[in-house]
Each structure stands twice: as structure tokens, then as C-alpha cells.
Amino acid sequence: MNKEEKAKLWADRIQQCQTSGKTCKQWCAENGIPLSTMGYWIRKLAKEEPASESEQDLVFVRLPSEQEAARKLLSEESSPVQTGTDGIHTGIPAAPCLTWQEEQRYIFPAESLI
Description:
Blueprint: H1 3-19, H2 24-30, H3 35-48, H4 53-56, H5 66-76, E1 81-83, E2 89-93, H6 100-107
Antiparallel strand pairs: 1-2
């Protein structure tokens, strides 16, 4: 068996394992393949795969800093600041669409996390 045939055989085995619905460990045990051998071929074939088109056509863009993003979020915010049940201002804009990370920026300044 030449190199290409062996690589094709292992690529097929890896595909069968991934589509089986079983863990790699279970599939290997059922097919009499050492888990370490499967891991070797997964790594080997991943290294040999040519870069996909999406990786070849990378485009780099400038992302806003956290401060710029926060300024933009706050400038677009038209709702008043929420007040807690005890009348204390939380400092969190009354926006139902804040992600957990965005919400944390209002509660914990980044410096306090270090």
C-alpha cells in the first residue's frame, strides 16, 4: 500500500468515526484500532491538508477597541439608566440585548479584574 492509499484509508476511517455518533474511544475499540494510532493519523492528516479557500483569502479588518465599542453602545442607547429595587442606580443601561460580557463592563472595570 503506497502513501496515498494509506492516507485515503485513514481519512475514510476518521470520517467513519466522526459520523458514527460514538466517541472516538468507543469507535476505535469496536474496530480494533488503538486510540493512539487514530490520534496519530488525525494529527498527521490535519497537518497535510492544504489550506482551505477561506484560509487563503483572509481579509484583515480593524476592530474597535473596548472603549470605542462602549462609547458607541452608550451613544446609541436612548433608554435611561436602570434603577434597582432599592433606588440605587446600577449604571447598566436599560437595554434588553446586552450580552453578559457587555454587562460586565458596566459592573466591573477591567482594572479590578487583574
